[in-house]
Design goal:
Elements (H helix, E strand, L loop, with lengths): L1 H24 L18 E4 L5 E6 L5 E8 L13 H11 L7 H11 L2 E6 L4 E8 L3 H13 L5 H16 L5 H13 L11 H6 L2 H11 L5 E7 L3 H11 L24 E6 L4 E9 L8 H12 L5 H9 L3 E9 L7 E9 L3 H14 L7 H13 L8 H13 L6 H10 L3 H11 L6 E6 L14 E3 L9
């Protein structure tokens, strides 16, 4: 045994110089790599017999099929008196059964097949998604089409959804971050459907008939796009889709409600929500821009430099240098259909609240005065270009992204030109964008915390309007 150990030690000693030499040759500082040439994945686009576009991407790695329907619907189409209607529709479409299949039976069948069918509605898009094993795709597709086009909206499940919504309203002011996020959005989009919130009165007034009517108006084959990926046979799949989705000749022409763009009124406001907590939640922002703006590439780099990374100006000064907050950042939510928003945010101890607000405003203002540095521009460009490929991590994400581009009306070649457009952005472009889209004096500033502990009075920042946190609490 002793001889064996000695032999091992000798072998390790003899190999070490060779490894050292290899390590020297493999120094990462001197290694050379060929230029990355990433080709953007594509998907096939076909049109069903009913006229619905479908994006297809076959992938046989796993015996699974994914499908998503994107429907032109959203909370912006809710009547003002029925805020929360779309959320209830999205919930009960799936939970309330469909095609005559009882909710409990639908749940059991999906669980037995290890399949999933889910539905949801956002601001300007509704989705119904399917995930199934290849062998169970056909019966899952039947449930999917029933949920999408023929939901039963079980009265019992409607009432369950209503009670769940009311309970969430009871807890809506428990979290200061949720209060701040809600109120800054309301202030930015005041007078527009994007600024409406669900109330106890609005959710209580919604009936099952309202859900049925809302669904019937928007969930139509001529108002959606499908995206399918996974282990399918193209010919068989298209045959099944054409059989599942047939034109309803009894329906009239599609008519979507006209929803105007938010008004571009830049006027500062200070809103205060009193919560007896030690940490102050701060949100500030205003309207931003849409995807149709020629400045979107400069804004994306501006976003990264200002508050979109751990090396951003906000993070380096507020968090690293001053130690005022753990979380700080900013983001331009570039609107796809309606004007988006710019919001900067942080949470800090009560005793540094006004100091943090003033410092954030100064950092944002400084970006409108002088060009960014070469280092900031190069770091932002490299990040945006190199991280681009991570948007194509799976067949489902690829095909869904392609469908989404058509859904929102992006121009042909948008993805193919994206990296080149980012690479063309100059420091002057970023300065111009900052001056055009950043207006610190017009921020809707929302502060949630205990002013008695603040370092200064909020009134030093402007006229303060207190948020009534009991206004929307059900009795």
């Amino acid at each position: 045994m002793k001889q064996f150990l000695l032999s091992i030690c000798f072998l390790v000693i003899s190999i070490a110089p060779a490894n050292a030499a290899d390590h020297h040759l493999s120094n990462p500082r001197t290694m050379k790599f060929p230029e990355l040439n990433f080709q953007i994945p594509t998907a096939e686009r076909v049109v069903l017999e009913c006229g619905t576009p479908v994006y297809l991407l076959r992938d046989t790695e796993l015996p699974i099929i994914n499908m998503t329907a994107m429907v032109r619907v959203g909370s912006v189409y809710e009547p003002a008196s029925q805020s929360g209607l779309s959320g209830m529709v999205a919930s009960v479409m799936r939970s309330g059964g469909g095609g005559g299949l009882a909710p409990e039976k639908m749940d059991d069948e999906l669980e037995f097949m290890a399949s999933s069918v889910e539905s949801g509605i956002g601001i300007d898009m509704g989705t119904v998604s399917l995930t199934a094993l290849k062998k169970n795709f056909t019966p899952t597709l039947q449930i999917f089409s029933d949920v999408l086009l023929r939901p039963d909206f079980s009265e019992k499940r409607v009432e369950i959804a209503r009670r769940q919504t009311i309970e969430s309203l009871r807890r809506q002011n428990d979290d200061p971050k949720e209060i701040a996020g809600r109120e800054v959005n309301r202030a930015i989009y005041a007078g527009h459907p994007l600024g409406e919130i669900t109330t106890f009165e609005s959710i209580s007034a919604i009936t099952r008939r309202d859900l049925v009517d809302f669904h019937r108006r928007f969930y139509r084959l001529d108002n959606m796009i499908l995206a399918v990926s996974g282990d399918f046979d193209r010919t068989v799949l298209l045959k099944e889709l054409n059989a599942a989705f047939k034109t309803d000749s009894k329906r009239g022409a599609l008519m979507l409600p006209e929803v105007p763009q938010p008004k571009q009124l830049f006027q500062g406001e200070v809103l205060y929500g009193k919560k007896e907590v030690n940490q102050t939640v701060i949100r500030m922002g205003h309207l931003g821009l849409t995807k149709d703006s020629p400045d979107i590439y400069a804004v994306r780099l501006l976003d990264y430099i200002l508050g979109g990374s751990f090396t951003s100006r906000l993070t380096m000064e507020i968090r690293t240098n001053q130690g005022l907050a753990y979380n700080v950042g900013s983001h331009f939510d570039i609107g796809r259909r309606f004007t988006g928003s710019f919001i900067a945010e942080t949470e800090t101890k009560a005793e540094s609240s006004v100091k943090a607000i003033n410092l954030m405003k100064k950092i944002i203002t400084d970006l409108t005065k002088e060009p960014v540095s070469d280092g900031e521009l190069n770091a932002a460009r490299e990040y945006m270009i190199n991280s681009f490929m991570f948007g194509f991590t799976s067949p489902a994400s690829i095909v869904t992204q392609r469908a989404r581009l058509e859904y929102y009306g992006y121009p042909d070649g948008y993805l193919e030109r994206y990296r080149d457009n980012i690479a063309k952005v100059t420091k002057t472009d970023i300065l111009t964008a900052a001056r055009k889209y950043l207006h610190p004096d017009a921020f809707k500033l929302v502060v949630v915390g205990d002013e008695a502990k603040f370092d200064q009075k909020l009134a030093t920042l402007g006229v303060v309007r207190e948020i009534d946190l009991k206004l929307n609490i059900p009795k």
